[in-house]
Hints:
Elements: E1 4-10, H1 22-47, E2 51-57, H2 61-68, E3 73-76, H3 82-96, E4 101-105, H4 113-122, E5 128-132, E6 138-143, H5 161-171, E7 176-178, E8 195-201, H6 205-215, E9 221-227, H7 234-237, E10 242-245, H8 250-260, E11 265-268, E12 273-274, H9 279-287, E13 292-301, H10 308-320, E14 331-334, H11 335-340, H12 351-360, E15 364-374, H13 377-382, H14 384-399, H15 404-413
Parallel strand pairs: 1-2, 1-4, 2-3, 5-7, 8-9, 8-11, 9-10, 13-15
Antiparallel strand pairs: 4-6, 5-6, 11-14, 12-15, 13-14
Helix pairs in contact: 1-4, 14-15
Amino acid sequence: MENRLIIFTRYPAPGTTKTRLIPSLGAEGAAALQRAMTEHAVRQALRANARVEVRYEGGSAERMREWLGSDIAYVEQGAGDLGERMARAFAENFEKRPGPVLIMGADCPTNDGKNLQDAFEALKTSDCVIGPATDGGYYLIGTKVPCPALFEGIEWGSAHVLSRTRAAAEAAGLSVHPLPELSDVDLPEDVPPRISVVIPTLGEEEMLSRVIGRCREGFGVEVIVADGGGADRSLEAAVGARVIEVEGGRAAQQNAGAKAADGDVLLFLHADTMLPERWDWIVREALSDPTVALGAFSFKVREEIRGVKFIEQTTNQRSRGGRMPYGDQGLFLRREMFEKVGGFPDLPIMEDYAIVRALGAVGEIVTVPEAAVTSGRRWLKHGVFKVTLVNKLMIAGYHLGVAPEKLARFYRRA
């Protein structure tokens, strides 16, 4: 049977949406947030392999279609309170065909495609699934049979919505599967900080489009490709990113990308490194601790190479115990911290090593358990022993005061 997913949202006209946030964000800012959350909700819904329907307030079906695309069904929510509108949406979908139906709001950006897939999976063995919100309501509800009693006699907008709904389900004899508790975005402090991902490129077309695609799965994210002018097709592969062209090495590219970015959080990512699922919330959670100056993902190599497990283990030990992650792990920090240390030093090589040392002097360095998966092309081409030896010699030369230009020449020859 076909899985169906209904998104309740509002057309993002300034002054009519997220009105409680207008005093802090302004009418345009509140509308932009509503637009971003709805677009994110649609992307996550499509990842759940379900037929998606958007039930909207404001605007028109034509305007919704122009905004979100023609591959989705659009239905006006219609009259009545929230419960009446949800009950009607369920009833109309069950009349069309049997099968599980979910309704979700657009105000919970942490409700991702994996969570939606789990919800449909839960409905194979349970009558009802509910995603509880931290404010006493819910961000998602789903059933595989009609049950209008779930939406009757509820004081919508109160802190009792969830408890009353659970009681109604129990009274109706429905088995309920709870999803993880998540937070809606209702107040200024709920708005997650925007993340700017900066990707320096020079001949990096092979994986770039996939890396950007994973970045764009996050909420409140912009992707900036700082291209160094390689002769390949990197710019063609940078679909979904803002591209700037920068003369100079990786340090100059990353500093230029940071200057062009508008995010409160900066993530510097190599073009051959794939971020983990839910990477955006992992970053926000790590940086919610004000003592953290810099975060990085754990290290993992994509390819199966003899001896690479040892490299992964020793790299993660150095990153966690020695508080010294490298750039191929993905480095993230708050903008003010980046500016505090003056950005990446103007070095032809080892700019990541230098900025990590500088940040370690002003705050904590953390390595999250989730891994960013990087390409093993260096080890495949040159061998694990040689790459490891060269890296050790580079670090030794750096601490011995060898000129960065000499180190760069040595690295290229090696």
